[in-house]
Amino acid sequence: MTVRLRWSRTLAGEGADTTPAQQVVNEIAADGGRAVANYGNVAKYDEAAAMIQQAVDTFGKIDIVVNVAGILRDRMIFNMSEQEWDAVIAVHLKGTFNVCRQASSRFREQKGGRFINMSSSSAFGSPGQPNYAAGKSGILGLTWVLANSMRAYNCTANAILPSGWTRMIDAVPRTVQQVMKETGKMPSETAAGTERDPENVAPLVVYLASDDAANVSGQCFASFGYSISLVSQPQVVKTVRNENGWTLDSLGALLPKTFGEGLAVPVPLDDGTVKTIGLNSHRGDIAEASWMEVGHGAKFWKIDLPPYGETR
Ligand SMILES: NC(=O)c1ccc[n+]([C@@H]2O[C@H](COP(=O)([O-])OP(=O)(O)OC[C@H]3O[C@@H](n4cnc5c(N)ncnc54)[C@H](O)[C@@H]3O)[C@@H](O)[C@H]2O)c1
């Protein structure tokens, strides 16, 4: 039986828009499951508390939280208003905290639970999204804290960088323009059954919530179309140590020879901004010969397999 709690507001995150949430509730009910909608605002501490309480009142307990609420207010840093910054940080970062905070005390008591948090590849520096990137980076940090602090209570916490043509993407002018030109439809109207279908993310969410993933925690997965990628955790890659301490002179003399070598230079884009760092390898730019067949019709690539284009 499917049991789902779904909350929904308008795309812009303002006011209650009952339709999408109620549609999902109806679909689950038609499938023989139980679900309930909630129209509260995750950015508000008390309303997030009421959501968790509603889940407990309806289903007897809560085992899994998936933090999925999100809004966009895209703008270059030099044009961004304080309100645009605050609104996005409130929904993404504070909203994720609010829900996790409420769920965590229940998880601690019952010694079990799953946190699944939606971050974004934008976290790695999307030029026109300072508020969104900061919020989504914050969610990664919070997810690692949850993984570390709630491990003792048999909980896991993981982040997903999802992708799909949803209502949110219908608000991204460049994508809308391109898809409209090609199909005459909004992106979300063309996604079903294709690589852009947001349903491609769902199996990963359910897997992370399942017993099979009891030892998967503190990880960040990128889901892009039919690819699922594991993103490395930040790690120290170079260290230079000076027993005498550092001066500006010694730094100036040594850093170019040590850290300075091989630093990635930001790649300029047509619009004057630069390419987001990271995540180069889950978007279809892996040469055919670098993949390994692993069954179930799937192929696999990892960083220590031969580099792009080289055969084994
Ligand atoms: N679609 C993508 O390609 C993509 C890429 C990276 C990350 N994400 C992230 O995935 C998550 C889901 O996004 P989506 O693409 O399905 O967008 P969506 O607009 O379809 O869904 C977001 C939902 O959040 C709800 N919401 C907004 N503000 C809220 C609030 N204050 N309280 C409660 N609910 C609120 C909206 O009503 C909507 O139902 C978001 O966190 C988004 O940032 C999406």
Structure, briefly:
The protein is an alpha/beta fold and 312 residues long. The protein has eight helices and nine strands. The strands form three sheets. The protein has a five-stranded mixed sheet, sandwiched between helices. It has a two-stranded parallel ribbon with strand order 1-2.
Shape assignment: globular
Supply the CATH superfamily name of the domain at 40-231.
Answer: NAD(P)-binding Rossmann-like Domain
End-to-end C-alpha gap: 46 Å
Average predicted confidence as pLDDT: 89
What topology does this entry show?
Blueprint: E1 3-7, H1 18-30, E2 34-38, H2 45-59, E3 64-67, H3 82-110, E4 113-118, H4 130-150, E5 155-161, H5 173-183, H6 187-190, H7 202-209, E6 219-224, E7 227-231, H8 248-254, E8 292-295, E9 298-300
Helix pairs in contact: 2-3, 3-4
The structure holds nicotinamide-adenine-dinucleotide.
Nicotinamide-adenine-dinucleotide (NAD) is lined by residues 7-11, 13, 20, 41-43, 68-71, 91, 95, 118, 120, 162-164, 166-169, 198.
Describe this structure in words.
A hairpin with a 2-residue loop joins strand 8 and strand 9. 29% of the residues are buried. The N and C termini lie far apart (46 Å). The protein is an alpha/beta fold and 312 residues long. The protein is built from 8 helices and 9 strands. The structure holds nicotinamide-adenine-dinucleotide (NAD).
Summary tags:
Rossmann fold; 312 residues; 35% helix; binds nicotinamide-adenine-dinucleotide; alpha/beta
